[in-house]
Write a structure and sequence with these properties.
By secondary structure, the chain is an alpha/beta fold. Helix content is about 55%, strand content about 15%. The longest helix is centred in the last third of the chain and has 36 residues. The radius of gyration is 22 Å and the shape is elongated. It binds NADPH dihydro-nicotinamide-adenine-dinucleotide phosphate and (2S)-3,4-dihydro-2H-pyrrole-2-carboxylic acid. Its main location: cytoplasm.
Length: about 290
């Protein structure tokens, strides 16, 4: 009988949890997933109790059992995290990285071997199977690796494939995207309070407004500008409200936000390049 795929998570934070929550609801049995982190034992126990996954403090053991390794630490911890598993990563593994900004070449240099790497940029809506994920292939990954990664990420939402260069933009747009929407909701809740609406009534109205607008975008196929115009009666309330948004340069603010997040993704990646290059030259001079 063919062995079931085993997946080791290096990192047990928000993104790992969102993926595990979605994956264990669909294609994967919890026993197929091994979760490791740096030191937070309480967090590992929580993951085991909540999702039934295996937990492991010994990364070497986790990697020995794994077919797929998912890198899910913060970019600032990537150097230490990747180097700590480098000797145990082999050409049999498929490495999937969700690290914002960090290129597959940097990851490969830190590992010090020609490994198959697929980079992914999901978002936390993976928790409920609604992630928008983009994938890109590293230089030693092939179509088979891509198909494996696509299958995995389809369990948590929609998947699209992009060139690795485009992943910074994807990160600024849809990786961080849920936070922009939550920030809008926070503002709507504050406004509801200031105009005197009951908090729980406002919450319900805001939530359904967001869900309804998203569903309208999805099901009618009308461009957002057309849908907006359908709400906006001449001389009415929406027009008056949007005039204020224009005074505050709302669209420019959103555009600048996404551009800055995109730029930040590139910065996060660049910060690791010198370390990766040093490791490559050290290992080739040995
Ligand atoms: N959050 C999001 O919306 C998204 C995040 N991402 C990416 O996912 C990655 C993780 O983000 P997020 O989950 O938010 O981060 P968190 O801070 O929530 O979690 C980070 C995890 O990494 C672990 N870790 C740190 N250092 C090491 C190490 N040396 N070895 C093993 N594990 C380590 C931490 O363990 P411990 O607690 O023990 O220190 C912790 O479990 C980031 O690279 C981010 O760019 C991508 C898309 C969306
Ligand atoms: O904020 C971050 O850096 C990560 C990447 C995308 C979403 N969260």
């Amino acid at each position: 009988m063919k062995k079931e795929t085993t997946i080791a998570f290096i990192g047990a934070g928000s993104m790992a949890e969102a993926l595990i929550a979605g994956m264990t609801k669909t294609l994967y049995r919890p026993e197929q997933i091994i979760v490791t982190n740096r030191c937070n034992q309480e967090r590992l126990r929580y993951m085991k109790e909540t999702y039934g996954v295996q937990i492991e403090t010994n990364k070497e053991k986790a990697l020995k059992a794994a077919d797929i390794i998912i890198l899910a630490m913060k970019p600032k911890d990537a150097m230490e995290g990747i180097v700590s598993i480098a000797t145990d990563v082999s050409e049999h593994h498929l490495v999937i990285s969700v690290l914002a900004g960090v290129s597959t070449d940097t990851i490969m240099s830190l590992i010090g071997k020609k490994v198959s790497i697929v980079r992914a940029m999901p978002n936390t809506s993976a928790t409920i199977g609604q992630s928008a994920t983009a994938l890109a292939l590293g230089r030693f990954a092939n179509e088979e690796h891509l198909a494996i990664a696509e299958t995995l990420f389809r369990t948590v939402g929609i998947v699209t494939v992009v060139s690795e260069d485009d992943l910074h933009a994807v990160t600024g747009l849809s990786g961080s995207g849920p936070a922009y929407v939550y920030y809008l909701v926070e503002a709507m809740e504050k406004a509801a309070n200031e105009i005197g609406l009951d908090r729980s009534i406002a919450k319900e109205l805001i939530l359904q407004t967001i869900i309804g607008a998203a569903q309208m975008l999805k099901t009618t196929n009308k461009p957002p500008s057309v849908l907006r115009k359908e709400v906006t009666s001449p001389g009415g309330t929406t027009e008056a409200g949007i005039q204020v948004l224009e005074q505050y340069h709302y669209q420019e603010a959103v555009i600048a936000c996404i551009k800055r997040a995109t730029e930040r993704s590139a910065e996060l990646g660049k910060a690791l390049v010198p370390t990766a290059i040093n490791r490559t030259s050290a290992s080739s001079s040995r």
